[in-house]
Structure prediction request, 145 residues.
Amino acid sequence: MAFSAEILYYRFIVRGMTLDELSKRSGVAKSKIQKMEVDRAFPANISEVEKIAKALDVKAGDIFDDADLLIMKAGKKHGLKIQQLLRRSIDRVADEVLNIDDKDKFLKAYSEAILFCVDESKRRQKASRLLNAQTEPPQGNGFSH
Prediction:
């Protein structure tokens, strides 16, 4: 289950807790928890996860796994857009029923595809710069001294 679903599950199904109660017990803003539950926000840091877990009387690992930690770090380093894209990608892979060998093959192929896309993007940028340099008018008024 994704982090958002875990919070909602433990808060509502297991503990029968309201958003207000969880907010008061954890010290995390109600609006932030609500956004986390609908996957519109991610914890700012691991201490938020620990506060929520403690308030729910569970271990942090019960609601937040290694993939979630990777996603949180990616968001801090690369921004929200990348964080959301990574979350969707990891969720799709996690939903697939693959044995460990197939997951390894997938990750290798995915890495190769990402590297190809990066190389292709760089190649296109270089080609665009060269094309622009060739089509720009000469600098100055065109008269020689």
Notes: Residues 3-94 form a domain with the 434 Repressor (Amino-terminal Domain) fold (CATH 1.10.260.40). The chain is about 75% helix and 0% strand.
